[in-house]
User: Fold this.
Amino acid sequence: MLPFARIAIIGMGLIGSSLARSIRATMPTVRLSVTDADAHVRARVRDLDLADDVADSAGVAVIDADLVILCVPVGAMGRVARDIAADLAAGVVVSDVGSVKGQVLVELTAALPGIAVIPAHPVAGTEKSGPDAGFASLFAGRWCIVTPPVGADPVAVERLSEFWRRLGATVETMDAAHHDLVLAVTSHLPHLIAYSIVGTASDMETVTRSEVIKYSAGGFRDFTRIAASDPVMWRDVFLTNKDAVLEVLQRFTEDLTALQRAIRWGDGDALETLFTRTRAIRRTIVDAGQDTDADDFGRKH
Ligand code: NAP
Assistant:
């Protein structure tokens, strides 16, 4: 039996539209009702035929749904939850896909008293945005971290976990604060570094912008892919995961200072030791199936 029969998705960008496509592919009998704040996105979703109903408001989209998934930027989650509160059906499970879990959990539970709120985060995505960027296999073979609040109904948690497993994801459960610390290291800090490096390179006066672009294959271009990620989504990630990001940033700054010292004093051993350790970490990520071993990240030349 399917874990849910009538699903509503609020926000039809990269993640929401990927979810719609993936639900259609794996659970075709599910009735899918969606909406987005942007009228152009709603029109595009209708053209792409991604759902049974494309509602003009979140309140209309969620009526009768037994699962509602919020796929909007983290900073908009609380507002959307307040908008739909009066229209939710009895017994509904409300979840989200936000990249930060602590603040979302606080805002959703405050806006939806008495409703089963079970936040989740599929650790899958690309640097693209919008409904055309989504694809059905986005979650296959990826992790989905479910962060139930203390005292959550275990049946609701299991139904949501089963939903993600049907989309091909592997589900892990952890508390929201731990999720935010783990993701600060594995995702938020790397994005911050990429935004910073690309900003620095474009501000350099002695190296021309055309030189930066021309010789970007030296490493820079891989940072530019990450730094092309959605500005609104990432603004909200840093504003809402402030404490964990500042904690890992402090560690990173100290480690960077140690590297700076090693370079200044010609300490080749320190550099080589670190670079050898990091190469081994890359190997374990490839072995775990979290990336391909293709040369140059699989680029065609
Ligand atoms: P996206 O492509 O920019 O899509 C977000 C959509 O939500 C946009 O169409 C946006 O419309 C709409 N929206 C904004 N506020 C809304 C509101 N109040 N009501 C209804 N719709 C609203 O972003 P995304 O990449 O799919 O990200 C969505 C969520 O997934 C975020 O919380 C993000 O943290 C999380 N996530 C992203 C990734 C990733 O790699 N991208 C991975 C995992 C999780 P406008 O354009 O008009 O604002």
Summary: The chain is about 50% helix and 10% strand. The domain at 6-174 is CATH 3.40.50.720 (Rossmann fold). The chain has a mean pLDDT of 95. The beta strands are 6-10, 31-35, 53-54, 67-70, 93-96, 116-117, 120-123, 143-146, 170-173.
